[in-house]
Amino acid sequence: MQTNQNISDSNAVNAAALAATGEVSIRTRDLDLFYGDFQALFGVSVDIKPGIITSLIGPSGCGKTPLLRSFNRINERYGNVTTNGEISILGKNIYDADVSLPELRKSVGMVFQRPNPLPISIYDNIVFGLRAHTPRGELKRGMDLDEVVESALREVQLWEATKNKLKDKATSLTLEQQQKLCIARLLPLKPRIILMDEPCSALDADGIERVEELINELRERFTIVMVTHNMGQAKRASDECIYMYLGKIIEHSSTAELFLNPKEEQTAMYIEGRYG
Amino acid sequence: MDSELHPFSASVFEQRKLFKEKLARSLMLTAALMLIVPVISIIIYLFVKASPVLSISYIVDDPGPLGKSGGIWLPLMGTFYLVLTSLVIVAPIGILAGIYLNEYAPDNWLTRAIGMAVTSLAGVPSIVHALFGVGAFVLTLGLGKSLLAAACTIAVMTIPVIVTATREALAAVPMQFREACWNMGATKWQTIRTIVLPNSVSGILTGVILEVSRAAGETAPILFTGAAASVAVSTATLDRKLVPYDLDDKFMALSYHLHIVAEKISGMPEEMMFGCAAVLIALILTVNSVSIGLRGWLRSRKKW
Q1: Which CATH architecture has domain A2-117+191-271?
Q2: ipTM of the predicted structure?
Q3: What is the largest CA-CA distance in chain A?
Q4: Which terminus of chain B, N or C, has less C-beta within 10 A?
């Protein structure tokens, strides 16, 4: 728990410091993105603030997921992707030649629509990231992996449910527990940003509520960007909203502002459910 | 149509439809059942005909003069070591190539060229592979007619199927596991080593073993590359009994032995031919069932 406390403190300080200086966590400028010949994003310029939850909303095919996936450059693994423009994460242009993708993805984690725990034990799921990023000798010497696992599972309120079956397959958990595990396994890597691609859409109402609570508790220590199709969720769970349509950002403001006083006619029509 | 009319009574057209449905179904069922007839008949026929010679001593004795008496130990060991040597050669290359093609290869002309090469290689008749084996391994590489040359020939012949089996086994591992690993910053190789391979190894291994044992049951690829009608091997000591051949030796093999005793030697006792055929088919069926059993067992241990 000691280490856990330190992680939380340092992250909170980082987030607070960034917020205080008016820093942005994720910043894109004139971002175009193509899958082959198909253009998915058009000149996207956005500043996403640290320590809050930002929702990406908009009808299917509007480019929410491509935008999310470009923040850790994972979209390059999905075939022939080209980008123009700039993406800065924590002040660093991630398209610079000296950026290490494994390090970038360590800092910018992703949670998926369908919970995707690895087909290994709960314990191994949590330490998978550390193992991928730490030389074997170092893991054996200094690090107490049991402690890492306990603190990560405690943070997502999964410890009590799983402490007696850490060696069980992670795929034997309920969907809600799996999704919490997928969040927990990012924590040992001490990420700064967590991207969530419709993190609750595979869950039932109870699961949605509890995972939303969890996301809410994480908000101050991380920059959270969440794609959602659920207007209620965007309203409930996020501090700022970005409305996208056909690969462009139409409107970006605080959640209350966007839902109560949308500036664009299109945004108003979408949140009223007139299309999409 | 004397039956009472009610809202759900079948019209004449409806009755005709039902009849056709039944007819189609029974035709297809018959065709499906016909599949098992040859398998059962072959096995029963072979084992009945071979029953006079089938015994432990037939398995473990060396063949007598011209194969007219004695057992089939040397050909059995020849086929076994042929399979083993081919596996050692082909498994690493085939599996690594399969992994590259499924996990790494970008969609470009080189990948398509390799894919076409694999498909074309799979379509080459085995006798052509045999001649290639003579040219490449026996003569050019100077291996001579030997176990190694024959194993290399089998390896070239089986590699396309092994590459394909590997790719299919890898493709069966859900994409979401790779996504999870990549998004935690794992490299592709870390992902393959820790997640993808452990979950596809059963499929890969069975594919490889099945294909190599099938190929080793063929006569053509070993005909000119190393199989012999008889070999001068002394199996007096136990280690020579268990490993009768060196890599550069000519060897006896079940398929070629069958060809010899059934075709080339007059006055061959009938049960000696059927004995050899029965052992060959028993060997292949055993390998098949063991690898299918292994696959089932490995599969039951993974869950997602």
Answers
A1: 3-Layer(aba) Sandwich (3.40)
A2: 0.85
A3: 60
A4: N
